[in-house]
Design a protein that fits this description.
The protein is built from 13 helices and no strands. By secondary structure, the protein is mostly helical. The chain binds a DNA duplex through helix 2, helix 3, helix 6, helix 9 and helix 12.
Length: 233
DNA sequence: CCCCAGGCGTCCA
DNA sequence: TGGACGCATGGG
């Protein structure tokens, strides 16, 4: 594949910040569980607050055993108790329900390793069928926990690409995901890092109200010329 | 005081 | 199909 402008945008961010190493505990026992929980708990929530909730779960001994034991604890814990542990991550009543649904489903699928053996498309549909798991959460779990080659789209992705001249403003989630995947080499590693880099760029520089473009690594990315725009569309 | 954070389900036109 | 709204804590 010819190096796309989108790939060059990734390379610019990667050159500035290097690998982000999201969810680096991937080799540990409860890695899949922690990643899946993190994906749910971080919905519209600062990661700092997610870490507090995860720390609560560990302190309470919920995460300190085998995966199946941890899942059973989550699935059977009294609602009020789980809500209290999840409180710092916000929306804690909704998230307690969502975490329980996720844990029950993982148990029903025979644990994460067996569950994630499903083909990519089936796994996405299966995740989306869960209450409280929408497209971004489903794809985050598919990519970061299951290692599927699915690009994770979020609000930053759309904002940053749009501001840099990519014709994505009117696209919904699926259209934008297809647009991006069609313009990048199909690589789990690349998808993993690019999404994390976009989140960092959005967090620090490409904010909705007060973008600080002067110090952003993407400041040299001018809008597409008309010719480039036609080719890219 | 305000806005924002690694969204989603529901309701309504 | 798409836009408003509630959900809730913690930081800047």
């Amino acid at each position: 594949m010819r190096r796309s402008r989108l790939l060059r945008l990734h390379e610019t961010l990667y050159a500035a910040w290097g690998p982000q190493r999201w969810w680096p505990r991937a080799s540990e026992t409860n890695a899949a569980l922690e990643i899946a929980l993190g994906a749910v708990l971080t919905q519209n929530t600062a990661w700092r607050n997610v870490e507090r909730a995860l720390a609560n779960l560990r302190r309470a001994g919920v995460m300190n055993e085998s995966e199946s034991a941890s899942l059973r604890r989550l699935a059977s814990m009294p609602a009020r108790r789980l809500e209290a542990l999840l409180r710092p991550s916000g929306y804690f009543r909704q998230k307690a329900t969502r975490v329980r649904a996720l844990a029950r489903h993982a148990l029903a699928r025979g644990g994460f390793a067996a569950w994630f053996r499903m083909p990519k498309a089936n796994l996405r549909r299966d995740l989306l069928s869960l209450h409280g798991v929408g497209p971004e959460t489903a794809d985050s779990i598919a990519l970061y926990a299951a290692g599927k080659d699915v690009f994770v789209v979020d609000a930053y992705t759309k904002r940053i690409l749009s501001r840099h001249g990519f014709p994505v403003a009117a696209m919904g989630y699926e259209a934008l995901r297809a647009y991006i995947e069609a313009r990048l080499p199909r690589s789990v590693r690349l998808y993993n890092e690019f999404h994390a880099l976009l989140v960092r760029a959005g967090n620090r520089w490409c904010k909705r109200r007060r973008p600080k473009c002067s110090a952003c690594p993407l400041r040299s990315f001018r809008p597409l010329t008309l010719e480039e725009g036609v080719e890219a569309a």
